[in-house]
Amino acid sequence: MQRGRPFNRQDMNLSHSMEDYLEAIYNIKVRNQVARVKDISREMNVRMPSVTGALKALADKGLVIYQPYESVELTQAGLDHARGIAHRHTAVREFLTSVLGLPEEDVEQEACGLEHAISPETLDRLLKLVDFIGAHGDDKAFRLSDFQSFLKDGSDPDGDMSADVCYLPATIKSTRLSELCPGMKGRIAFVSGRKPIRKRLVEMGMTSDTHFEVLRTAPFGDPIEIKIRGYNLSLRRSEAEHVEVEVIND
Questions:
Q1: CB 15: neighbour CB atoms within 10 A?
Q2: Euclidean distance between the first and final Cα of the chain, in Å?
Q3: What share of the chain is helix, strand, coil (3-state, %, to 5)?
Q4: Mean of the pLDDT values across residues 119-147?
Q5: In 78-96, which positions are buried (b, 16+ CB within 10 angstroms) versus exposed (e)?
Q6: Fold (CATH) for 1-168
């Protein structure tokens, strides 16, 4: 599965703090569907007036929708940015623990600093290395030249990450339903998009905390067939892209 262009904070001229707020909003919505100022304040351990100021700045950039005393919503651009930030954070954290062997209790602050400090190009290759190691498992040895070949032309000697194989990196804990592969299971976190789209998906049974399993995907990922609420349901890829899910590993 091909992933999109690496997230680049320079695209939106985002500060490190703004990225942290976007990531916090995304993680809260994945867990609880709704993100309020007090939730963000608690998540980031900052005062509520600081949260309000940050939300106004993010709203000015078109990344969030915020009105006083209401929950915070991510725009589509905000959701795409927030998801990318969350993915790179978990991948950097996985690199520090699984590859470098650092204790889990020590890596959170390191991960936060590292994800902000390195260039998007370097980060993209680091994430690909984490994915490559994860795809081959602990019991499979591979040479550095194998990884370099994968970077160059996408070839994988074991085929685990070839272009024709559906693959979702183990570091990704939440993403769009459209990114999941057959056999994967998940929990619906929230539905995004305009009101008519959300209404249609909810009427189809795509409500928060509902569990599902991906049964099959057609060529090019459209449509996607899932099992949900005891019946099989086919979704267009354009619909599945509006369903944010938490990946469940058995």
A1: 13
A2: 21
A3: 50, 15, 35
A4: 74
A5: bbbbbbbbbbbbbbbbbbb
A6: Arc Repressor Mutant, subunit A (1.10.10)
Alpha carbon distance 88, 130 (integer Å): 11
CA atoms within a 13 Å half-sphere pointing along the CA-CB vector of 35: 28
pLDDT tens-digit series, residues 53-67? 999 999 999 999 999
Q: How confident is the model at residue 241 (pLDDT cuts 50, 70, 90)?
A: very high
C-alpha to C-alpha distance for 191 and 197, rounded to whole angstroms: 9
Can you give the residue ranges of every domain in the chain?
A: 1-168, 174-248
The answer to whether the beta carbons of residues 54 and 37 sit under 8 Å apart is no
CA-CA distance, 63 to 25, in Å (whole number)? 11
What residues have CB less than 8 Å from 45, skipping those under 6 apart?
Answer: none
Distance CA 209, CA 30 (A): 10
CA distance 61 to 74: 11
Q: Bridge-partner residues for 187, per DSSP? A: 211, 246
Element containing residue 44 per DSSP (H, E) = helix 37-44
Taking the mean position of all CA atoms in its chain, how far away is CA 48?
Answer: 26
- Evaluate whether 1-168 and 174-248 have a shared fold: no
For 174-248, CATH gives 2.30.30.90
Q: Coil, helix or strand for 212?
A: strand
| E strands in the chain | 64-65, 73-74, 174-176, 185-191, 211-217, 224-228, 231-235, 243-248
Query: In angstroms, rounded to a whole number, what is the distance separating the alpha carbons of residues 35 and 79?
Result: 13
